Structure formats: structure tokens, C-alpha cells
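Q: I have 183 residues here and want to know how they pack in 3D. Can you give me a structure?
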Amino acid sequence: MEWKSYGRRRVYDSPYVEVWLDDVEIPGVGRIDHHVVTMPKASVTSVVTDEQGRFLLLYRHRFITDHWGWEVPAGWAEPGEDPAVAISREIEEETGWRPASVTPLVEYDALAGISTMRFQCFHATACEQIGAPIDGSEATRVEWMPESELLKLLATGQVQDGPSLAALSYFLGPHRLLSSNAR
């Protein structure tokens, strides 16, 4: 079943988000106005690990949900910017650590039913600490967590951010399985 689009009109826009009403026909339902949220910039996220098997995480407060929790470094790629370069920049700005290696991990649509938001997730390794985080507003704490602690954080709901959950779950699950089968 494929929806048919008859056009769209902009409801709101800013440098960070656009909201549209699409005039669509849904088979068996009829024509409706369907909200669509688009992001003018590409979203990037990362799983950052070191040679000891630890994960680099940020502890922060999200005012919209009023939750504190652990997250992976993430951000936006500027128009025309290579997403791998963007996530390297974001990791450095948010954590004070500069990755030497950034490789693609997975891509996914975050809210496919209502948004064009697509995340490109990377695995960053061989980080060198270059100083304190450049953007002090990003996190209260930046810490390297052993996998055993990360698993406890995931199991107890202390990682509530969707991009972080997706990135870490993919890394600990399918990525790890595929990597071990390739050996």
C-alpha cells in the first residue's frame, strides 16, 4: 500500500527543523493532512571505544523530557560537510577527545512515520585527549565506561536517548556478531 501525495505546505521553519502539512491519500482511508518534520542538516552519531573496550559517554540533562541520562556523542553535519568529518568534530567538541579513526557503522530513519530525520552512525577509535570539551553546554560529565557498566546503564534505563540506544544496541548486537563471523 503506497500513499499518494498531492502537495505540501510549510507550517514552520528554522535552521534546525521544518514542519510541513502534506496532502496525502491513504488507500482505504482517504485524503488527509499529514504532519511531516524535516531536518535541514544531516544527523550524525557515534559509538566511541578505546583499546581497553571502554565506551566514551556524556552525562547530560535534556530539558524537553526533563531527564538526566547517558548519551553517545552526536550532532549535525553542516550542509556539504562529510558526515565522518562532522562526527569527528562533534566528538572533539563534546568530549575533548579527538578520534584518529572513524568508520561507518549503521544508518537508520529515526521517526520514519513522521520525519525525514536519518542518522548516520559511526564507530570512532584511537582517540587522543586534546583538552576539555570545547562546548561546555553539552554535558555535565564525560566518562570512559567499561562495557559491564554500560550494560548496567542500558538495563536500568539510564540511556534513554533514542540515537544512543540505537547506536549502542547495534554496536553490541549485529555489529559485534558480524565482526566475529568475519574472523
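Q: Anything worth noting?
A: Residues 48 and 124 are 5 Å apart (CA to CA). The two ends are 41 Å apart (CA to CA).
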